[in-house]
Design a protein that fits this description.
The structure holds 2 protein chains of 2 kinds. Chain A is globular, with a radius of gyration of 27 Å. In chain A, β6 and β7 form a beta hairpin. In chain A, the strands form 7 sheets. Chain A has a 7-stranded mixed beta sheet with strand order 10-11-8-18-15-16-17, with helices on both faces. Chain A is built from 21 helices and 27 strands. Chain A is about 30% helix and about 20% strand. Chain B is of the alpha+beta class. Chain B is about 35% helix and about 10% strand. Chain B has 5 helices and 5 strands; from the N terminus they run ββαβββαααα. The chains are: A alpha+beta, B alpha+beta. Chains A and B meet through α8, α10 and α20 of A and α1, α2, α3, α4 and α5 of B.
């Protein structure tokens, strides 16, 4: 049996992680060099609030309450603080916040700490600026006392506090004195014209270590005595362990424990490769008496039948039935959406260490307060006895905001069977990740509209059939309705309703959530209606959005930049779609080329985004490209299918995703705005499927309604 | 068995069928090389064997004992350094998990093809998945690195 391997970096990790309370804050910056930045390892001299720490070396450490999983939020949050602090960007570094809903709650959600709904910058914008401004005021007050000059005569610029007499100091020199100052009750925030960092293309704080391979993800975390676990998961949802013969694998090298956790068999040992090999050899007999054995085709069939009858109403305007009676033309269409896996590059994983009175966790924690509560309940501990250390995550796209805290709880179930204090890393393979469920819900949408004799849209009905993510199924909650009940078009008679079946397949938010399906069905259908009315799809939309200047703003900008009016060669087509998702307005124009055999490429996407004040245009551009690439991946190829209950895909061979040769050219245009900033992580994903489907229609005259498009 | 990793001889005592990926990560503490799929589908585990890109997740360690292996941690390769610099300048990384593999595939491309066309970039890089879809900046960074290396990597 191989023992755990002691090596330099493991010892280093232990050293830093046990350095008292400061160790708990070591979210992300223990790298494989084993070196934490100075201000993380040395006690900060000046801690004006929960978000800022300043060391005597003048390092400013920003405590980020949101997880960094690609969207650039560490950089964004730090920018807000650094600007109001008048810091030099070079002196900033960022740590993930520990679990503490009181201090680090998402202000859009009360005191629940977590990241989601593209809400990070939106909720934290003023809070972070205040944190920076408050620290700046205390540094100035300390300088005023020390220099015996009025505070109003002191300036701060690029990390230097100065007085016109020539007196000046870096933050570190005044840090100890500033710590003695009282926290100001009120601070004056900058006028946006005074911003020095906000609005600039500042480099990301995480880009260097991620490029060098030294950034620490959960996958990379090592501790002395750490055990590795994999779990033989049931191949059907709802199945339980019936029996297994541990003796067949117990003698394999490195295997230490094999035991049931009820809905799986845990294999614990020294290294991933050894436990994974044992899992492959282990035969488990499953109790399938309560297992779900439906196929996707059957689910779609049932959903289509459900859509024949009215569902629970999410929005009602006027009298749609009467309007349909009076319509000169009725248009109907249906749209089908398969289950989708998130398939982040780093599969799910979690490191835990338990003692009787303490639960410590290290992982890409997204729904921190929810996971903390779930862990406390599982272990019978108080909330404060559960510490969560937020690490970088190799993507999430919603998956790590698990509504059931599924994989952290799985790690805890295993750790409880191990000797107290044993660090345990639960590792999921790609197949575990892809088959675990927590998919975007399979959906069937039926839409119906009425046009009058002049081609005016007088009635709209949108019927959705699909599972809810967090609701009780008795009403059209946000996860089902967003993008549908929030349809912005001026239509006098409108009904949005839904059937919300309960299936044992776990479902979850998937980048842009309800918008990802409702955006497709509504924006494809409005395009059909434009054609039915003999109108240009852009002009038709603009007419119905006269009361919505931010919608028309992005539509016009995207159309102009895409050359909407310019004719295209045969076999090419252009399509447009618009969406307001998570308070951000976004329009996309896709350009496609269709070959004679029907195969197609998406050549170019022009994006106009109105996300209020742009904090970092480079990151916004990157998020637009990312959201579109992610959405296009699903629009073209994405499908998880069930066959007799079994997930037919397990890896990227069966679950095809977008690759570099399929990535369109993407031109991003940001609408200049001074509105309160809104999110950019998810909105880009929503309009791409309908923009492409509409472009395919323009190129071929054929409607592409069901996803994936091919 | 003796391994040659980043110019240094390393020893590994264990199952010769263990994929190189897990030997690098778990035994040699070279965690820059990532696990993404275990089936050579995603490229996150890309390293070089004698300068050519291989997927370490499906390469048994006993198959490379006489070969020269280079990982993202290599500090003495002008090509890898130029690619990393270009990656940082272009602000490629988002979640970052796939990027070491992307860098290694790009460095191997530039070693073989100092001035790659877009089509050559597609051919060399389409084995590396990025779920953040950083592909546009990857392409720009490869062109920039090629420029930087003077087309003679």
């Amino acid at each position: 049996m191989n023992g755990p391997i002691e090596n330099f970096s493991r010892r280093d990790f232990l050293k830093t992680s046990s350095a008292g309370a400061a160790g708990l804050l070591l979210g992300v910056h223990f790298t494989s060099h084993g070196a934490a930045p100075a201000s993380a390892s040395s006690a900060a001299a000046f801690v004006p609030n929960a978000f800022v720490k300043i060391g005597i070396d003048s390092r400013v450490t920003v405590i980020a309450k949101h997880i960094e999983f690609g969207q650039g939020v560490f950089t964004g949050l730090a920018t807000l603080i650094a600007d109001e602090l008048d810091a030099d960007w070079q002196q900033i570094n960022v740590q993930g916040a520990p679990a503490n809903g009181e201090l680090y709650g998402n202000l859009n959600w009360g005191k629940s700490q977590g990241t989601g709904g593209s809400s990070s910058i939106n909720n934290a914008y003023t809070q972070m600026r205040r944190a920076g401004a408050s620290a700046r005021a205390m540094l100035i007050n300390a300088a005023a006392k020390q220099w015996q000059v009025p505070a109003t005569e002191i300036t701060v610029d690029d990390g230097v506090i100065a007085h016109r007499s020539g007196l000046h100091a870096r933050f570190g020199e005044l840090a100890k004195a500033a710590a003695e100052e009282s926290i100001p009750k009120n601070v004056t925030l900058k006028d946006p014209a005074q911003f020095k960092l906000i609005g600039k293309d500042l480099p990301r704080v995480d880009v260097v270590e991620k490029t060098l391979g030294t950034a620490t993800y959960t996958q990379d975390l090592k501790m002395p005595g750490m055990k590795i676990a994999v779990v033989a998961h049931p191949p059907l949802y709802g199945a339980k362990v019936d029996s297994f013969d541990a003796s067949t694998v117990a003698k394999m090298p490195g295997i230490e424990r094999v035991f049931s956790i009820g809905d799986g068999v845990a294999i614990v040992g020294a290294s991933f490769w050894q436990v994974n090999k044992a899992r492959a050899a282990l035969e488990v007999s499953w109790d399938n008496s309560n297992a779900y054995t439906a196929s996707s085709a059957k689910i779609f069939k049932e959903y289509r039948e459900l859509a024949n009858d009215p569902g629970v109403v999410g929005r009602l305007e006027g009298d749609p039935d009467a309007a349909f009676e009076n319509a000169a033309q009725i248009v109907e269409a249906s749209y089908e959406f398969p289950f989708l896996a998130h398939a982040s590059m780093e599969p799910m994983n979690c490191v835990v260490r338990l003692s009787k009175k303490q639960c410590e966790m290290w992982y890409g924690a997204q729904s921190i307060s929810r996971d903390q509560r779930a862990a406390a309940a599982e272990l019978g501990l108080a909330i404060e006895q559960v510490t969560i250390n937020m690490l970088y995550a190799g993507g999430s796209f919603g998956r790590r905001a698990s509504i059931k805290s599924d994989y952290p709880l799985e790690a805890l179930k295993i750790a409880q069977q191990l000797p107290e204090g044993t660090p345990l890393k639960l590792v999921w393979t790609r197949e575990d990740d892809m088959r675990a469920g927590f998919f975007r819900p399979l959906n069937y949408h039926a839409l119906k509209a009425g046009l009058d004799a002049d081609g005016n849209l007088i009635a709209w009905q949108h019927r959705m059939v699909g599972q809810t993510i967090f609701g009780d199924g008795n009403s059209v909650d946000v996860s089902i309705g967003e993008g549908a009940t929030t349809l912005p078009y001026a239509i006098d008679n409108l009904r949005v309703d839904a059937h919300i079946p309960k299936l044992p397949v776990p479902v979850l938010w998937w980048r842009s959530v309800g918008h990802s399906q409702n955006g497709h069905s509504t924006e494809s259908f409005i395009d059909e209606l434009a054609h039915a009315a003999g109108r240009d799809p852009l002009a038709f939309r603009l007419d119905l959005l006269k009361h919505e200047p931010r919608y028309t703003g992005v539509l016009k900008l995207a159309a102009e930049k895409a050359g909407w009016e310019k004719p295209l060669a045969k076999g090419k087509g252009r399509g447009i779609a618009v969406q307001r998702a998570f308070k951000t307005y976004i329009a996309e124009v896709a350009e496609v080329s269709v070959a004679e055999d029907g195969s197609f490429s998406v050549d170019r996407v022009t994006v106009a985004v109105d996300c209020g004040l742009a904090i970092n245009p480079s990151i916004i551009e990157a998020q637009m490209q990312s959201g579109i690439g992610y959405g296009l991946s699903a629009a073209r190829f994405g499908a998880i299918t069930l066959k007799d209950g079994y997930v037919e895909q397990g890896n990227f061979d069966g679950y095809r995703v977008l690759r570099i040769n399929e990535m369109p050219e993407i031109d991003v245009h940001i609408v200049p705005s001074s509105e309160h900033p809104t999110g950019v992580g998810e909105p880009g994903t929503a309009p791409i499927a309908p923009a492409v489907a509409n472009a395919l229609f323009a190129a071929t005259g054929q409607r592409y309604r069901n996803l994936p498009l091919g | 068995m003796k391994l040659r990793i980043n110019g240094t001889e390393r020893d590994f005592q264990g199952d010769g069928e263990t994929p190189l990926l897990w030997v690098l990560r778990d035994e040699l503490n070279l965690t820059g090389t990532k696990y993404g799929c275990g089936q050579a589908q995603c490229g996150a585990c890309t390293v070089h064997m004698n300068g050519k890109p291989i997927r370490s997740c499906i390469t048994p360690v006993n198959a490379i004992t006489d070969q020269s292996i280079t990982t993202i941690e290599e500090q003495n390769s002008p090509t890898i350094s130029a690619v990393r610099d270009a990656w940082i300048n272009a602000q490629v990384a988002q979640c970052g998990y796939c990027q070491p593999g992307q860098v290694m595939s790009a460095a191997a491309l530039l070693s073989a093809t100092p001035k790659p066309t877009d089509a050559q970039i597609n051919a060399a890089m389409s084995g590396n998945i990025c779920r953040c879809a950083t592909y546009a900046r990857i392409r720009a960074a490869i062109h920039a690195a090629a420029e930087d290396l003077g087309g003679q990597a």
